[in-house]
Fold:
Amino acid sequence: MADLTSRMPDLTLLLTALAAYAAIMAAVVAARQGRSIAAVRALAEQAAQTSRAEAEATRAAVHTAATDAAVAAASARGAFALGVEQMRGALETRLRDMREANDLSLAGLRRAVDEQLHAAVEKQMTESFARVIDQFAAVQKAIGEVGAVAAGIGDIKRLFANVKTRGGWAETQVRALLDDILPPESWLANFKVRPDSDEMVEFAVLMPMRGVHRPVLPIDAKFPLEDYERLIAAAEAGDREAERAALRGLERRVRDEAKKIAAKYILPPTTVEFAVLYLPTDSLHAEIARIPGLIDGIGRDHRVLVMGPSLLPALLRTVHLGFVTLALEDKADEIRRLLGTTRVEILKMDDVLERLARQAGAFSGTIERARARTRAIGGKLRDLGLGAIDPGIDPGTGEEIDAAAEADRGLDA
Structure:
C-alpha cells in the first residue's frame, strides 16, 4: 500500500502528459482539416482545462486512496506489532524453556565428564606411579648390577695383576680352541721338548703325517699386560711421547718372548721349524701388528708366528684338514683292499657258475633221455591197444618213437 501511495504523483504527471499530447494531436488534426489558428487555440485551451480538471480529480482520488491506505497501514501496523509482541513472548518463553533444558543437560554432561575424567586421571596417575616405582626399582637393580660389575672389574684387575694368573687365562683360551677344532688325540699339554731340560711348552700340536715319530707344533701363550696398559693410558691421555715409548717397550717385550720361545721350544725333528706365540686379545695383536716390520722380523729372525684369537683358529683348522686328508687316504687304502678282495671272490664265483652250467647241461641230457624212454614205452603200449600212459602225454608217431629209441641207445652208448 505504501508503494502504491508513493507512485500516485508519477501517475498524475503521466495522465497530464497524455492529455496534453491528445490536445496537441487534436490541434494537428484540426490544422490539417483547415481550421483556423483560433479554433486550434480554443481547442488546446479546452483540452488543457479538461486535463487540469481530470488531474484535479485524479489528485483527489489519489489523496483519498492514500488516506485510506494510510489508515489501513496503521491498522495493519498495529496488528503486526501485536502479533510481533505475541510472537516475541512465545519465543522468549520457548527460549527460556530451551535454556533451562540445555542447562540441565549441560549440568548432567558436566557431571558425567567430571566423573569419567576423574576416574581416567586417577587410573592414569595410578599406572604412572606404578611405572615410576617399577622403573625406580629397575634403576636400583641396575645400580646394584653396575656395582657388582665394578667389583668384578676390580677383581679382574687384581686377578690380572698376577703374572701367573694372566698366563693361565691365555692358556685357557688356547685349550678351548684346541678342544673345539682338533680331535683330542692330536694335541698335547705341557709337552717336554728337550730331553736334557725340564722346560715344557704349554701346548704341542701333532702334525698330520704318517709314521711313528711325528713332529709337533709348539704353542706358547703370553699376555704382556703392563706394557699394553701403559700404551693404552698414553693414547687416552694424548701423550705422543709416552705412547711411542710404551710402543717401543711393548715391541721389546714381544721380541724377547719370541726369542725365548725359539730357544726353548724349536728343536727339529722333535718339533717343526717354527712355533706360535699366542696373544689372548685381538686389540693387543692389532697394536703389535701396527708396529712396522715387527711380526715379519720375528718370523724371519726367530721363526715364531705371532697370532691372536682371530688367526690361531685358522691355523688349527688347516692342521685339522691335514688329519682329515690322512683319514681319507686310510679309507682309500681300505677301499682298494676291499675291491681287490671282491675281484678275487668274483673270479671264484665265475668258476662256480661254470661248473654249475656243466652240471645243468648233464641234468638236461638226463631229462631228455627220460622223455625219450617214456615216448618209446607209450608207442609200444599204443601198438598193443592199451592206450597212452597219461592222456596228457602224446606218445608220438612210429618214426618219432624209433628216433627216440635210437637217441636212447646213443645216450646209453
